[in-house]
Write a structure and sequence with these properties.
single chain, 707 residues, alpha/beta, Arc Repressor Mutant, subunit A, 4-stranded mixed β-sheet, 46% helix, 10% strand, transmembrane helix, AfsR-DnrI-RedD_regulator, TPR-like_helical_dom_sf, transmembrane, membrane
């Protein structure tokens, strides 16, 4: 019986009891006693009551009045609760987004386009890609975002230290995924080794990126408005229209610097997918936004150029004959390019207090079709936006009306996201060096693991009172009782099970909250954690009859005596393979057999990636060890191809397989493998390896080039 089937009878019973309490007492009192007051007392009745106050009649009247008062209090309480529920419902309905006139017009135009367009379609050239859509210009209706974006202009993600529009948050998640793909591509297989450590390149990403991932996983994107996406501004005279005024804009107010950081991050995120988008920022503006220590990080950001001052920025943005020069002075971003050509979009951020009138004239003279100026202060040559701390634009002509919302970030959040964008290449791993100690936020399975069988135990006989509880986290997380899945309602409960499975020593309350709900202060989520754990333990106890999650000294852990965990069996096999001195082939094969799929397949929980990649690397190590010990090249090739299926982005595995194919006398198949790998990397927005045709060792000795 489902939860809903159990809940509605209780709700119906509660409603009947309330109705009985509201209707029953008045009916009984009116029938047995009559109304509490049949009329105003006369003078004689008052005198008689004063002389004899405690008579049977007066006591009856007093009790009747008291009963009516109790009923009135009950009726008042029920009325207040009903009104509060109605008010909450009305407030919720008021927050449901209704189509704006622009959206209604867009829908009508889209319908007309669907039903009225002729069969001979005309293909128009694609417009220049816009800069990142953070907000529309409130002062100029002609400069607006795409209609599709305006439907969810207030939908965003709140993180510690800022607010991001949903599309920017999704770009952050995509950039995070690229970081892990680059790390997978660069990994060089080791000999099988002991579990418990984390490679140097598997350190967790910054906390703000984890908070964005968790927020998007908890609040999936709403369905896109397919009608609205068909309509785009047709009057856009410049590539930057639809985002910022073509004449430039100044940012003032308490949220100006936070909005500047948001614009810095969103522009560089857009530059990862649109090579025509670049950004030039003066050193003074960079220091104002991120502090004096930010320049070392900024020099690793692709698409960013640091100018010494405003005059230097203007010179960089003015096209020169030849188009290219030496390395960019004062910054990095597109090495080898001294200027930003007309085919690129440049965003300039300057500090108005440091700029004079001549600087203003030079910046204002830039081509508005390819350059957009953003000033951290008033902008006399264009518009000036007042930005509050929440990122909302205030129109000076409409003081009481808030405009659209810009992405706002504090220095810590902005630096975290810029670190993800920088995607510095992971250091090359020396197979002879020991693994680095695990980072606190990326703790892997401890070496002291409960004993787990490497083979599946038989099911108990019908007369046996023992039942088998198994937790599978390799693949789709599933909790099984005697092979039958047990339904776990809450997604957070499933995540807690997976987290405790990968942390057999347990985790305290704060550690669990940081992992499951990164971002918000832990004390605000303690009740949510307790509710989730209580319901999870009750569900398991109802289906299995035993308590599986122990709680001792504020640490939660899975009881190894009552639950079998597949990832514990995998680590037992890994530990045996790392210490085996005889029959190593069987030990390596046991690691492969214990790995049916990656950890929590399809889940995007931020804490997963370091542990997931550590397990994947152990399995790849076992495949490569078997391939190196294989008796013939055909067996080697089969094992390498199986390893590629485990990680289709690893460059070393592809190089080994290509070299093996060449050694087998099939260079055409080797070329086909290299081309398929290049297409896969290109499809994932990664640059293909130029030296894939080299030997496996040669490919792995240097880290792949960054974008």
């Amino acid at each position: 019986m489902g939860v809903g089937e159990v809940r509605w009878p209780r709700q119906l019973m509660s409603l009947l009891i309330v109705l009985a309490l509201l209707a029953g007492p008045p009916m009984l009192l009116l029938r047995l006693v009559g109304p509490p007051i049949s009329g105003w007392p006369t003078v004689q009745q008052l005198r008689a009551w004063v002389q004899h106050p405690l008579t049977e009649q007066t006591l009856t009247v007093a009790l009747t009045i008291a009963a009516w008062l109790v009923w009135l209090i009950l009726a008042y309480t029920v009325t207040i609760r009903v009104l509060a529920r109605l008010r909450a419902t009305v407030s919720w309905l008021g927050r449901v987004p209704l189509p704006t006139p622009l959206q209604a017009t867009a829908s009508g135009m889209a319908g007309a386009a669907v039903f009225g367009v002729s069969a001979n379609a005309i293909t128009a050239p694609a417009p220049h890609p816009p800069l990142p859509a953070t907000a529309a210009n409130p002062d100029d209706p002609s400069h607006t975002r795409d209609v599709a974006g305006s439907a969810f202009r207030d939908a965003g993600i709140v993180v510690p230290g800022g607010w991001l529009p949903r599309d920017v948050a999704e770009q952050v998640t995509a950039a995070t995924a690229l970081v892990w793909l680059r790390r997978r591509r660069a990994y060089r297989p080791h000999p099988p080794r002991q579990p418990g450590g984390v490679d140097q390149d598997l350190t967790p990403l910054p906390a703000t990126a984890a908070a964005v991932q968790a927020a998007l996983a908890e609040h999936p994107s709403p369905p896109a408005d397919t009608n609205a996406t068909l309509v785009r501004p047709t009057h856009a005279p410049t590539p930057a229209s639809g985002v910022l005024p073509a004449s430039g804009v100044g940012l003032t107010g308490p949220g100006a610097l936070a909005a500047g950081r948001g614009l810095l991050v969103t522009t560089l995120l857009a530059g990862q997918h649109q090579p025509t988008v670049s950004l030039v920022i003066t050193r003074t503006a960079l220091t104002s936004l991120l502090g004096p220590a930010a320049e070392s990080l900024a020099r690793r950001l692709p698409g960013l150029t640091i100018a010494d001052d405003v005059d230097h920025a203007v010179r960089l943005l003015q096209p020169r004959s030849g188009g290219q020069g030496g390395s960019t002075h004062g910054g990095s971003g597109r090495p080898g390019h001294e200027t930003t050509t007309d085919s690129q979009l440049a965003l300039v951020l300057i500090v108005d207090e440091k700029a004079g009138a001549a600087d203003h004239r030079g910046v204002a003279g830039l081509d508005a079709g390819t350059h957009t100026v953003v000033v951290l202060g008033p902008w006399p040559a264009g518009q000036t936006w007042q930005v509050d701390q929440a990122g909302r634009i205030r129109d000076s002509r409409r003081p009481g009306q808030a405009g659209q919302r810009l992405c706002v970030l504090d220095p810590v959040a902005a630096s975290d996201l810029l670190t993800v964008i920088a995607h510095s290449d992971p250091p090359a791993i020396n197979p002879a060096s020991p693994a680095s100690p695990p980072a606190p936020a990326a703790a892997t399975l401890a070496q002291r693991l409960p004993r787990q069988p490497t083979r599946r135990e038989p099911r108990p006989t019908p007369g046996d009172d023992t039942r088998r509880l198994e937790l599978r986290v390799l693949g789709e997380p599933t909790l099984l009782i005697d092979g039958q899945p047990l339904t776990v309602r809450r997604t957070a409960a499933t995540q807690i099970l997976a987290f405790l499975a990968t942390h057999p020593d347990g985790a305290d309350t704060r550690h669990l909250i940081h992992a499951i709900w990164p971002g918000p202060p832990p004390h605000t989520l303690t009740g949510r954690l307790y509710t989730t754990l209580s319901e999870l333990r009750s569900t398991i106890r109802a289906g299995y009859g035993r308590n599986v999650i122990d709680h001792t000294d504020d640490r939660y852990r899975l009881n190894p005596a009552h639950v079998h965990v597949d990832v514990w069996r995998l680590h037992t096999a890994i530990q045996h393979a790392a210490t085996a001195v005889t029959d190593t082939t069987t030990a390596w094969q046991a690691v492969i057999d214990a790995y049916p799929d990656e950890l929590a397949t399809g889940r995007t929980w931020p804490w997963l990636d370091p542990i997931r990649e550590t397990l994947r690397r152990h399995v790849i190590d076992a495949y490569v060890a078997l391939a190196d010990a294989a008796p013939d090249s055909q067996s080697t090739l089969a094992l390498l191809q199986a390893a590629i299926r485990i990680d289709p982005y690893n460059a070393d595995l592809h190089a080994r397989a290509a070299n093996t194919l060449t050694a087998l006398g099939d260079p055409a198949a080797a070329h086909q493998l290299r081309e398929a790998y290049r297409r896969r990397l290109t499809g994932a927005d990664l640059h293909p390896e130029d030296n894939l045709s080299a030997t496996a060792v040669g490919v792995s000795e240097t880290a792949p080039a960054s974008r």
